[in-house]
Amino acid sequence: MTLASPAAVPQPLLALRESLGASAVLFGDEVPQRNRNDWSTQPPAHPLAVVRPVDAAGVSAALKACRAAGLAVVPQGGLTGLCGGARPEDGWVALSLERMVGIEEIDPASATMTVLAGTPLELVQRAAAEAGFYFALDLGARGSCAIGGNLSTNAGGNRVIRYGMARELVLGLEVVLPDGTVMTSLNKMLKNNAGYDLKHLFIGSEGTLGIITRIVLRLHPQPGCTLSALCALPDYDGVVRLLGAARGGLGPLLSAFEVMWPDYWQVVTERVGVRDPLTGSARHGHYVLVEVQGTDEAIDGPRFQRWLESLMEEGALADAAVAQSVADTQAFWALRDACAEFFPTLGPHVSYDVGLAVKSMDAYVRACKAALAVRIPGCESVYYGHIGDGNLHLVAWVPGLSVEQQPKEAMDEVIYGLVREFGGTVSAEHGIGTAKKRWLGHARNPEEIALMKTLKAALDPLGLLNPGKVV
Predict the structure, then answer these.
(1) Which CATH number covers residue 150?
(2) What is this structure's pTM?
(3) What residues have CB less than 8 Å from 252, skipping those under 6 apart?
(4) Which residues does the chain have with pLDDT short of 70?
(5) Residue from 296, 295, 322 nearest 307 by CA
(6) Does some domain include residue 459?
(7) Among 89, 143, 91, which Cα is nearest to 121's?
């Protein structure tokens, strides 16, 4: 069935196709399946068209055409989002940046890289490494996600504790506004206080205020060595003390602090089948992966070893394993990243990304696990996260139920209700999209939400750019 015949397509889109080329503007059944949804669990949509420009001028022309036709537009990058932010609705236009890929410049003097927004994160990382630099943003979808999408959701990832969120890695942007205006602000300077820092309007706004097309990224020196240890602790108080000791004893070397609760540990070692690198069979209260990035292994290796030994002598650690090779480090991270294997192991489940004060996390976990079990008989849940930067992940499921049968609404009410009670956030690094829009008020007060709506109305008065998302 043809979803949109030429006769049903507004004239501005037909003219856009003439201008950009037939391969850049696809209608109806021509729209690829990938452009009909992101990684959220919502059903695929039927957009009127997908537009695939190659530069900011093409993005501008597309937005002007859609504005003339009164059509809603959803920006799309790698489509790896989990909250529906890049999912179109039926009859919308999907504006995909999939052809805007490439490294425009690496400036060694300013330690910056200028890239097109559709460039995959892994390509950015590799280009930085080949130039002798390090791009610090890293997450599991690195091979698929696009850097523009990473910025639109202010992605976090594994090393926020040292390098910060995505917004800390950006110096300049080129953005196309909803009316088609191209705002070019490709700043390379760390210090630039000439008026409002406009880039922060668009980073984390999930494509509702403008479409990011080019980016100046901040690079760091390549680490001379990476060292890691897997630590077992008797309780959460010990985890908090270990975090303080790592900050104080390792300083800027500390690059990751990943915590796994015992329910998560049991699932990944016994059900997923990841090897337990710790000695003995004792179960512990918590497990922590500590990673440092140094400049010289001959200096930083012994320092890291002495730090761990002092903790063992003090009785702060119940057990520990130190990586002796790159393979060991990868094996440690395999435990933390085993959540990617949960679907074939656990079956259908629901994943959550929340933020809480570090001191409150264990109390939240205990309250949440108990409340889920009471509200939803048979519900199981496991907990893990970055912790050092206040980010907790959890997975909840009722065994034997399909994806559609999982009681997600009841889970949401318990999980986000407790987030509000504990003064946390319903989204630490995945964004709001449509999936969490209902719960935005649990993390933002009415005055904050009103200002968000004011900004949206000012930049997109017709409400055509990703409408209905975030606020």
Answers:
(1) 3.30.465.10
(2) 0.93
(3) 162
(4) 1-7, 280-281
(5) 322
(6) no
(7) 143
